[in-house]
Amino acid sequence: IRRKKKVxxxxxxxxxxxxxxxxxxxxxxxxxxxxxxxxxxxLLNGENKxxxxxxxxxxxxxxxxxxxxxxxxxxxxLHCTITPEQIIQGHTPMxxxxxxxxxxxxxxxxxxxxxNVAESYGFKNVYTPLDVxxxxxxxxxxxxxxxxxxxxxxxxxxxxxxIDAILVFADSRNWAADQQIILELLLSKNGVMxxxxxxxxxxxxxxxxxSDFIWATNYKLSxxxxxxLQVSIAALYREHTxxxxxxxxxxxxxxGTFKFANKVLTHWRQGVLDEHLKKLSIxxxxxxxxxxxxxxxxxxxxxxxxxxxSYDDDDSSDDIKEPLAIVTKKDKIxxxxxxxxxxxxxxDTPESDIRFANSHDASWHSILxxxxxxxxxxxxxxxPKHMCGxxxxxxxxxxxxxx
Length: 403
Ligand code: G3P
Ligand code: MG
Known about the structure:
By secondary structure, this protein is of the alpha/beta class. The chain folds into two domains: 13-89 and 255-284 and 340-402, Rossmann fold (3-Layer(aba) Sandwich); 92-249, Rossmann fold. It has helices at 35-44, 67-78, 113-121, 129-135, 147-152, 175-186, 226-241, 255-279, 350-359, 391-402; strands at residues 5-9, 18-21, 28-29, 32-33, 56-59, 87-88, 103-107, 125-127, 165-168, 205-208, 214-215, 223-224, 247-249, 292-296, 310-312, 321-329, 332-336, 343-347, 364-369, 386-388. The strands form six sheets. It has a six-stranded parallel sheet with strand order 6-5-2-18-19-20, sandwiched between helices. Strands 8-7-9-10-13 form a five-stranded parallel sheet, sandwiched between helices. Helix 9 (350-359) links the parallel strand 18 (343-347) and strand 19 (364-369). Helix 1 (35-44) runs parallel beside helix 10 (391-402) and helix 6 packs across helix 7. It is globular and about 65 Å long. The protein starts with a strand and ends with a helix. Magnesium ion is lined by residues 22, 24-26, 216, 347-349, 372. SN-glycerol-3-phosphate binds next to loops.
């Protein structure tokens, strides 16, 4: 006799589409919060005329703090809860390098913050330029370590350490010293300070969290970013060696970051479903079998669908799309959310944001706002699918387009 368990899956009022936001120039300008962003978050959290919640994540090229700290800061500024899982910073995908390199030099940010972030990702031996300067202040003439720097720095003998990779995590706070150390290592034998390679191909790999040449702060004009440091280092390397520097890049518009963002988005959406199932006391959705009957809130059976399938709400009056999909493999049933139907990416920098959203997947819809790097009246190098004033206009545009 087939045991039948009745499980009711009612409609989660969660949109099938999603948002992805850039931070600097869209949500923030330097230390200031752009007021339209607070209103935009209210709309996403259900305060819209369709009474629907829209999933969202943040993809910034910025960094220099743990994702949890960034999430806390954004929650406070935007008057809503943003979780660390919703945040991708330029250096977040560098997690994937753990296990490949044992000794890394992490560049950028204040004091030990980036060291701590790298260690929290799982990197074992993390060094900073401050450690190098403490080891031998003559490495960078004209720069004296502050008392704070001396406390933050580790005691390390760099004549005995072989740096495997240089990871530029965040904006350099000291270009002169950082460039000197980075160049020395790139030109070294096996990443050991004080050595020189004759062939210039024995140094460590170098990775940048992003390549933004300029970025929007609370100053009138855009400021040079990590991409400018990258250009500068490559120029010095070329001048010194006559060769092109091989650089590994993360951040927008790189594909690796796009893949990472999609993974995060899928995970976030699956989390929404899991939460819902928990409310229905289904602790392990994978333990469901064909012996269980799933019905929707209209009493219809939604079992035995042999392919991944999403379906729309029958009652189209409020046009809510049911985000649930059911996959039946042999006698196993898995509940999944299909990928977001459209991801609206809101950014201010054509070269990184619009290029990022346009390059990798046709279901991403790029929106350029005028609160950051892009200046009204100019022609953006990469053409957005839509252009508007600020992030609130962007959210309104997307919600209206969907309903
Ligand atoms: O350093 C951060 C900056 O280059 C850009 O940040 O949020 O606009 O991607 P964001
Ligand atoms: Mg930006």
